[in-house]
């Protein structure tokens, strides 16, 4: 931008007289105008300067106006383009508008029409810029969870999240397991006008139909055996807030009918009740399934799909945005500091190996890898050989194993014990944290430790060894 902050316009035309006339008119209007007499010069100018608007002739000997427009929009995504030509036809007008032109003007140019069109195009540009600025401000608001990444697909997703968060419509979030569907839902909630109310995530795949009915709608006293008092359901409890129905594709058909009625009527009825209760909740639904395919197979209601699918947000899998892996890794390095703050960096080779992997479990799998590696690595920097075996490396953690674990030949049980004990030692004996890293429940870990003690292994002595 020039120092005077004037709006910058590029005019492109191989007819010098026409070029000069348009430039003169727009300069008098107070705009900063630059000119190019051919498509090649226009592209060169666009590649080195910012413009708010481009006016380009359609027919030029080297690069035509449509190509200039495509290149301009690639380099300057927010720029508007007006196509000008002396060869006005319906087909060329349709092509130009389909490719993204703001408008199409035929020669000879009417100056009043030109001024009005330029003003409208710039109003659209300035409004878009203001919206972008506000979105960036909102996204940076303290406490809002961040979807890490700068890949073009992720940037588009962030932009869509900020936009739809302000609307009060239902949203369908689609993505593979581990891509961050709940994170997207929480971000929408935090940026929405309902942010001061409740956010309730409900996993539809974790409940039977009977439990889901009771959890969502609640029950009246004596509705069934054991119902000694009435109880609000989650939909009623979240009144005024946002409910995330995670793995919506797992919802039984009978429940789908009841949910459809809630979406249509904004009313629920508790189990065993006779009175309808009005609820005001925004529904976000998430799935890793192709719901269109589920509809074809008769496992998902088409009418419910259309109710939920007011807006769809697609989260790209990690394998399709590997350029984001270094950012995500650094994010997790900061999130999970190693014991005694030993590790804060990762060597380039290890990072390259992380980028080469396809991550069937997506970002969740990468997070688990980083957390596990930090727990087991005792060096100042994560090296390639610290990475798990799926990366084709040897996991060198023998420096924290007991001398017994260094024997040349060990049984599978010995290896499992050594790994579990190494993790337990890395977290100073915290069984809850160790179970989380090992991806087993605390009861399973307790049973294994009890078994080790019964076999004569002294856990306390091992944990106290330096």
How are the elements arranged and paired?
Blueprint: E1 8-12, H1 16-28, E2 32-36, H2 39-48, E3 53-57, H3 65-75, E4 80-85, H4 90-98, E5 103-106, H5 111-139, H6 152-165, E6 171-174, H7 181-191, E7 199-203, H8 209-217, E8 218-219, E9 231-232, H9 234-237, E10 242-246, H10 253-265, E11 267-268, E12 277-278, E13 282-287, H11 291-296, H12 302-308, E14 311-314, H13 325-335, E15 345-346, H14 348-356, H15 362-376, E16 381-382, H16 412-426, H17 431-438, H18 442-454, H19 459-464
Parallel strand pairs: 1-2, 1-3, 3-4, 4-5, 6-13, 6-14, 7-10, 10-13, 15-16
Antiparallel strand pairs: 8-9, 11-12
Helix pairs in contact: 2-3, 6-7, 10-12, 13-15, 16-17, 17-18
Quick recap:
The protein has 466 residues and is of the alpha/beta class.
Describe the structure.
The structure is a single chain. This protein has 466 residues and is an alpha/beta fold. The chain folds into 4 domains: 8-132, 3-Layer(aba) Sandwich (Rossmann fold), CATH 3.40.50.2300; 152-314, Rossmann fold (3-Layer(aba) Sandwich), CATH 3.40.50.300; 320-394, Orthogonal Bundle (Helicase, Ruva Protein, domain 3); 397-466, Homeodomain-like (Arc Repressor Mutant, subunit A, Orthogonal Bundle). Helices cover 46% and strands 13% of the residues. It contains 19 helices and 16 strands. The protein has helices at 16-28, 39-48, 65-75, 90-98, 111-139, 152-165, 181-191, 209-217, 234-237, 253-265, 291-296, 302-308, 325-335, 348-356, 362-376, 412-426, 431-438, 442-454, 459-464, and strands spanning 8-12, 32-36, 53-57, 80-85, 103-106, 171-174, 199-203, 218-219, 231-232, 242-246, 267-268, 277-278, 282-287, 311-314, 345-346, 381-382. A 5-stranded parallel beta sheet has the order 2-1-3-4-5, sandwiched between helices. The protein has a 5-stranded parallel beta sheet with strand order 7-10-13-6-14, with helices on one face. A two-stranded antiparallel ribbon has the order 8-9. A hairpin with an 8-residue loop joins β11 and β12. α13 (325-335) packs across α15 (362-376) and α17 (431-438) crosses α18 (442-454). It is flat. The N and C termini lie far apart (61 Å). 29% of the residues are buried.
């Amino acid at each position: 931008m020039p120092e005077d902050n004037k709006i910058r316009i590029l005019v492109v035309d191989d007819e010098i007289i026409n070029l000069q006339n348009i430039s003169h008119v727009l300069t008098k209007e107070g705009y900063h105008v630059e000119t190019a007499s051919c498509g090649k010069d226009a592209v060169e100018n666009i590649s080195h300067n910012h413009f708010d608007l481009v006016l380009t002739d359609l027919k030029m000997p080297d690069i035509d106006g449509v190509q200039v427009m495509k290149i301009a929009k690639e380099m300057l995504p927010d720029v508007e383009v007006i196509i000008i030509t002396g060869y006005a036809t319906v087909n060329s007008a349709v092509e130009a508008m389909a490719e993204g032109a703001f408008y199409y003007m035929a020669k000879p140019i009417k100056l009043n029409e030109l001024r009005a069109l330029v003003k409208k195009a710039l109003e659209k540009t300035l409004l878009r810029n203001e919206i972008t600025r506000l979105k960036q401000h909102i996204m940076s608001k303290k406490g809002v969870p961040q979807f890490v990444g700068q890949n073009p697909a992720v940037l588009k997703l962030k932009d869509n999240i900020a936009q739809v968060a302000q609307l009060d419509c239902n949203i369908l979030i689609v993505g593979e397991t581990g891509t961050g569907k709940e994170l997207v839902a929480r971000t929408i909630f935090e940026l929405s006008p309902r942010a001061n109310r409740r956010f309730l995530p409900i996993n539809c795949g974790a409940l039977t139909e009977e439990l889901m009915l009771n959890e969502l709608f609640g029950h009246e006293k004596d509705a069934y055996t054991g119902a000694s008092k009435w109880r609000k359901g989650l939909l009623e409890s979240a009144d005024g807030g946002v409910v995330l129905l995670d793995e919506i594709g797992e919802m039984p058909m009978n429940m789908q009918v009841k949910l459809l009625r809630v979406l249509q009527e904004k009313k629920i009825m508790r189990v065993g009740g006779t009175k309808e209760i009005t609820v005001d909740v925004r529904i976000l639904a998430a799935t890793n399934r192709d719901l269109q395919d589920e509809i074809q197979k008769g496992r998902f209601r088409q009418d419910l799909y259309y109710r939920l699918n007011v807006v769809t947000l697609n989260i790209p899998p990690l394998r399709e945005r590997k350029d984001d892996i270094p950012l995500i890794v650094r994010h997790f390095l900061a999130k999970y500091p190693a014991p005694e703050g030993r590790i804060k960096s990762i060597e380039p080779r290890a990072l390259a190996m992380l980028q080469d992997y396809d991550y069937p479990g997506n970002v969740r799998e990468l997070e688990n890898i980083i957390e596990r590696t930090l727990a087991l690595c005792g060096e100042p920097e994560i090296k390639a050989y610290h990475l798990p075996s799926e990366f084709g490396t040897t996991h060198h953690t023998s420096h924290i194993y007991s001398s017994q674990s260094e024997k040349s030949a060990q049984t599978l049980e010995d290896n499992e014990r050594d790994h579990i004990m190494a993790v337990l030692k890395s977290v100073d004996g915290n069984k809850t944290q160790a179970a989380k890293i090992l991806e087993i429940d605390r009861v399973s870990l307790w049973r294994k430790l009890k078994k080790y003690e019964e076999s004569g292994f002294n856990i306390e002595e091992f944990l106290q060894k330096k």
